[in-house]
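My current task is to audit a protein record that another person submitted. My question to you is simply how this chain folds and whether the tokens agree. This is what I was given:
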Amino acid sequence: MSALALGGFGIGLTEFVIAGLLPQVSGDLNVSTAAAGWLISGYALTVAVGAIAVTAATAGLPQKPVLVGLVTLFVAGNLLSALAPTYGVMLLGRVVAALCHGSFFGIGSLVARRLVPPERASRAVALMFTGLTVANVLGVPFGALVGERWGWRATFWAITVIGAVALVAIAALVPAWAGARGGRADLRTQLHAFRSTQVWLTLTATALGYGGMFGAFTYLAYTFTRVTGFSTTDVPWLLVVYGTGLVVGNIAGGRGADHNRDGTLLVSLAGLAITLVVFGALASSRGASVILVFLLGVFGFATVPGMITRVTDAAGGVPLAASANVSASNVGNAVGAWAGGLVISAGFGYAAPLFVGAGVVGVGLGVMGVAVWGSVGGGRETGRAGQREMKAVEAQES
């Protein structure tokens, strides 16, 4: 499990670290700030598309070798970024690294579940995602520190080394049996799993929950400096507070989901919507903002373990569903950021994305309510369609 968490940590660093390095990268490669921004946007778009495409392309293969291959791709992409002589090569490196992101977390979550008893499935997923949440806390300051002292390329060299260590750890420590089961489900079987209404409802709730949170998060630096009155030098530690909330929410969400998955998801989404509304109303208060940005992280990430186990159970355990959940979250991120930018451009102020985010999450809460109402057994069994697909997968593996 620790090997998967280490892989998640390295991948998370790659995603978040670039934000603190953009000025150095744009200056060194002689490109505009807008062009440098595509090193972030291009990565996110590749994750959204690659999560499904790569998982579909590897359908039918044992999952441990696929994970090893994905981390190898991650190492190659970051090595390319570290060596990049031009902006085009740098962007290519980011795209190559991003191709592994969604599939790693999608397939890795299924492997992690097999390493523990069924009643600890969500906690296993949460443990794997701990690497990603810790990377969120450390990514930007890590990149800024290393980049300031030794240059931005040193940051990508460091991530390359972390990736290589994760590669060896996964190859050595993940049992072959945990990465073999489920890998032989062919693409047709995996696509059939998407006939389940529960799969689509859960994916929609994931996209809306993430969209609401990250639509607000994208503009938090402006909210803190233009509304709350913090200085720009305060923003990094405020983001660390948010990242700490992610870590806490991930762990708490995993534990809660193993006890009552649907109940945990409903409470988390409701808590997130309420936090966003209160945050918008009290954005001018420094003390309240510190507490609320922490709660934003807690409630926002508490949904992750339960959403992944829910969608994969509804889909009969096929890897494509877990990867589709990662894609849904990235689509939500992009749409949420776009919606937040619209209300700012319309002149509603820098606290407005918080209220928009609350509305989006509220819709997600309604979708999850419909999913829970239509499920069987309060979320422990997520529909007859999912059960049929699970039996089909098991039949292929036997």
About this structure: Residues 235-281 form the longest helix (47 residues).
